[in-house]
Amino acid sequence: MRIFAQMAMVMNLDKCIGCHTCSVTCKQTWTNRDGVEYAWFNNVETKPGIGYPKAWEDQERWKGGWALDSSGKLRLVSGGRIRRLTGIFANPDLPSIDDYYEPVTYDFDTLLTQPVGKGMPVARPLSALTGKPTSITWGPNWEDDLAGAGTTATQDPNMKRLAAKAKMEFEKSFMFYLPRICEHCLNPACMSACPSGAIYKRERDGIVLVDQDKCRGWRMCVTGCPYKKIYINHATGLAEKCTFCYPRIEAGLPTVCGETCVGRLRYIGLILYDLDAVEAATLVADHELLEAQRQVFLDPFSPEVIKAAQAQSIPPEWIEAAQRSPVWALAMKHKVALPLHPEYRTLPMVWYIPPLSPVLDVTAEVGGDPVLPDDIFHAVTSLRIPLDYLAELLTAGDTDQVAGVLMKLAAMRAHMRTRTLNAETDHDMLARVGASAEELEDLYRLLGIAKMADRYVIPPAHTEDAAMLNAWTSGCSLSDASGVGPGGVGYPRAASGPVPVELRRRK
Question: What is the pTM of this model?
């Protein structure tokens, strides 16, 4: 058992209001410069919709993520080393600038130099790439609130699989917001697809970064990432991506998107996991992927895990942080958080609590009693957001997993309502969802009224560990015959060279 720590995030989709504050603050912090005008490390999509870039979930087109071959072994969908070598100078599986949007500026000089006249001068959009006049026909928020859904929602890969069950008719329309950042996966496909070995996963906290000195702009990482969260800086030709705000994380502060989130829907915490179990978790059938990834995570309260973690030089405060982690609580203790597209087999570390919608209103609409648990649970299957759609997004099509989460969330609401109004506890309802009153009340405190210290449990990095933060070396994915990466699904090795004395001293 090799224990590693991973910074992770959970987002509660029931609380996202689609305000894009997270996107704007991230943009101002990380991509407010030439070359990455079109890059949004954090973006908020309206679902159903094709998202940003266009149809990023369509892996038949973009060839992202991992798949099992005929012999049951893991392989990159984009192909092995021979295929990547043959296409290294002309990769056809890349989104074009039209799939993002052509970044623009405006002809503001016209407003200043236009002579006096009867008409109002107009600053027309100019392409930031060519400097020529252009028109704005697409962008990262083009589908906000279903604005463009009339023409694009039917192209949503999740909707295509539900074409017989869900139709984009006005009276049956549904929507919710999906904030997205890099998943900082345990088995990142981008890292294995990179011919230069420029992408690496930090040993101490699992954050995936790009070494700008090693990057050669081959763009294979863009194809390999199934979430399309790696961008090419068109000014430098190098890859850039979400950094999980690692300078802030090292100081014990939340990410910019997390701290500025208006809906307080983001939770950041530490997860301990067994590196030796990662590869096996990627080799199971689609319907087993969720539980397989949960089995990779280690119980931070287990005496055996604590002892092994201490033996492997994980600081005591990091173990304590893992015990207080809201990510552990939501994903493992209460099991209400689910990974985004687990079928990509990257083992993503940004999870989501599915939107429940106003279940009590729906209960009344279908003729049920909002106080009766049976009626509430029945209404869960009649929500405007189809279970099949959420399952395609979060559980590789397993509707039972999604229904179980939504029923637990509905039970939490019903329990808190009954306890508040009548000072009673419905033990039959608790038994049906397999939770105690204390567990549901703990879940309510975390989801409903948690303070910042409960939502963000981030242990600061030790200065003496600075050299180890970047110790996970990706190597060259083309050096392994299987094309899966350096020695398999990623193995760390110690940072080269001695650690400077000043970094070894504990301050």
Answer: 0.87
